[in-house]
């Protein structure tokens, strides 16, 4: 199943070759979880990297599709009986956003849906007591749903050279957990992305 999802994502990535403007982007993903059962989760840094492609409908409006490998997740820290415990959730996805892209000179705005295919999930637990820290890593790839649905909204600026700087918010619309201790609970992916991109031959 996961090979099928990855193949679909790579096919969508290859489809960007027919776009009017194709480029690369990479940056920081600052992810967490939201929902009634994620109130004690904090943000954890990750990454995002991939391809971006824009189909211009006219000088102002276009459709932008992307294929991004993104590290999401969250961090949860607490103390009990003199022991400090930190749980880090690391979820790697292939994100495919399809965004309405509005641009005025170099300034642009974007908004649209996003589908994400889970590639790998890991739970990292650090237990610290006195001067000793024990780290445990657990594969939880089968716990979250393999497909997540959400939306993305952002703002940015692209120079005539094709170099761009963008800030984007991603929000999940589907509950995260299919199995495991959080099965049936209300947790959703959320996060911010700060990225640099380069689109050669970009015409603003």
Task: Please give the structural blueprint.
Blueprint: H1 2-14, E1 21-34, E2 44-56, E3 61-80, E4 83-104, E5 107-129, E6 132-139, E7 147-158, E8 163-172, E9 188-198
Explained architecture:
Helices cover 6% and strands 65% of the residues. It is mainly beta. It has one helix at 2-14; strands at residues 21-34, 44-56, 61-80, 83-104, 107-129, 132-139, 147-158, 163-172, 188-198. It is built from one helix and nine strands, in the order αβββββββββ. An eight-stranded antiparallel beta barrel has the order 1-2-3-4-5-7-8-9. The chain has a single domain (1-198), classed as Porin, CATH 2.40.160. The mean pLDDT is 88. Keywords: Signal. Residues 1-19 form the signal peptide. Residues 21-176 form the Outer membrane protein beta-barrel domain. It comes from Pontibacter mucosus.
State the secondary-structure class: mainly beta
Mean residue pLDDT = 88
CATH topology: Porin
The best one-word shape is elongated
Domain Outer membrane protein beta-barrel: 21-176
Pfam families: OMP_b-brl_2 (PF13568)
Protein name: Outer membrane protein with beta-barrel domain
Signal peptide: 1-19
């Amino acid at each position: 199943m996961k090979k099928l999802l990855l193949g679909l994502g790579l096919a969508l990535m290859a489809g960007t070759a027919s776009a009017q403007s194709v480029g690369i982007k990479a940056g920081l993903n600052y992810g967490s979880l939201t929902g009634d059962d994620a109130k004690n989760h904090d943000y954890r840094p990750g990454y995002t990297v991939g391809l971006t492609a824009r189909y211009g409908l006219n000088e102002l409006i276009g459709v932008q599709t992307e294929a991004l490998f993104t590290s999401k997740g969250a961090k949860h820290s607490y103390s009990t009986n003199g022991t400090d415990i930190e749980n880090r959730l690391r979820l790697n996805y292939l994100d495919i956003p399809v965004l309405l892209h509005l641009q005025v000179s170099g300034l642009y705005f974007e908004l649209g849906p996003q589908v994400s295919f889970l590639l790998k999930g890991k739970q990292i637990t650090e237990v610290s007591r006195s001067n000793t820290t024990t780290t445990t890593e657990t594969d939880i790839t089968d716990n979250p749903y393999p497909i997540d649905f959400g939306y993305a909204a952002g703002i940015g600026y692209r120079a005539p050279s094709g170099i761009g700087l963008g800030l984007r918010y991603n929000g999940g619309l589907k509950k995260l957990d299919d199995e495991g201790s959080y099965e049936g609970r209300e947790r959703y992916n959320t996060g911010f992305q700060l990225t640099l991109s380069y689109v050669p031959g970009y015409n603003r």
